[in-house]
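Regression test case RT-17, inverse folding.

Input:
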């Protein structure tokens, strides 16, 4: 009995440490840095619905939806992509958990199963319309990463699936969680998905070499860094200009002016981005500077159509 009692204190910390390590590696698979866009998009959708109030119950529901859209569902898509990209990551990012041998395939599959169950359970809380949007997002995640479709190899189509999943679907889900969809909110969700297509192009700069070796036709791999950068900037700007024009024509003049000024603030950033020669540095620079202006325009337009 004494031996058992003395062994138990040593055993418990070891098991707790192991669980913490497994959880930490699951979170690494889920790429927390990617959670921000869908989280904000869901919140923008709730604001655009025009029905939310600053009350504890409502704020708690929005927080639950943001958790669902960002860490859970976006995290799920990242784990799927990590597994399907394990060979190209061995070239581009060998420090990632799978190519580095930090996680087993079983660990990956368990993480996918847990996130899928949690995501669907959370979506049920908001009603069947949000469940359908969630299922569409899960389908897009599989289509983007997994064979035989593997849209990631198709550049433009792959980026479209990701941009819709990152911006459009969370915005729509956030709106539907509190009210029926409106034409203006749906249009903005589509425009910001278009803009996110350009941002996805920038994110692919870091893996040009590996993509070319593995036959993945990302836009930078097809067009080269310079032309892909120009394409990304044009796509982002077209989306923002169209959103500004819509806000102005629909009578939300103040929001349109604020968005226009924010968009002007991108010009120095985009000029420097286009002049840079290192593709990886371009992606890091723009993600740290230009993306925030895009997000601020999203928020301003959501607040604007709410009023």
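Golden output:
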């Amino acid at each position: 009995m004494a031996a058992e009692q003395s062994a138990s204190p040593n055993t418990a910390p070891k098991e707790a440490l192991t669980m913490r390590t497994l959880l930490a590696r699951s979170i690494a698979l889920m790429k927390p840095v990617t959670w921000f866009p869908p989280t904000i998009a869901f919140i923008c959708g709730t604001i655009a619905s025009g029905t939310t109030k600053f009350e504890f119950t409502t704020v708690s529901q929005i927080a639950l939806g943001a958790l669902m859209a960002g860490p859970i569902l976006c995290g799920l898509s990242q784990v799927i992509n990590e597994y399907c990209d394990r060979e190209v990551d061995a070239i581009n990012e060998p420090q990632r958990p799978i190519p580095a041998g930090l996680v087993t395939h079983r660990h990956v599959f368990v993480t996918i199963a847990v996130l899928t169950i949690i995501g669907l359970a959370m979506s049920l809380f908001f009603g069947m319309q949000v469940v359908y949007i969630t299922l569409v997002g899960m389908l897009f995640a599989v289509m983007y990463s997994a064979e035989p479709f593997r849209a990631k190899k198709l550049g433009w189509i792959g980026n479209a699936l990701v941009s819709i999943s990152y911006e459009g679907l969370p915005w729509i889900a956030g709106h539907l969680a509190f009210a029926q969809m409106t034409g203006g909110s749906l249009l903005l969700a589509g425009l910001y998905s278009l803009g996110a297509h350009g941002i996805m192009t920038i994110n692919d700069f870091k893996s040009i070499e590996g993509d070319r070796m593995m036959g993945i036709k990302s836009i930078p791999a097809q067009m080269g860094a310079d032309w892909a950068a120009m394409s990304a900037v044009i796509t982002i700007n077209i989306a923002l200009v169209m959103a500004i024009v819509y806000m102005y024509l629909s009578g939300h003049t103040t929001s349109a002016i604020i968005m226009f000024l924010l968009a002007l603030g991108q010009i120095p950033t985009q000029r420097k981005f286009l002049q840079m020669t290192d593709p990886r540095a371009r992606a890091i620079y723009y993600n740290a500077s230009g993306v925030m202006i895009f997000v601020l325009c999203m928020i301003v337009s959501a607040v604007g159509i709410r009023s």
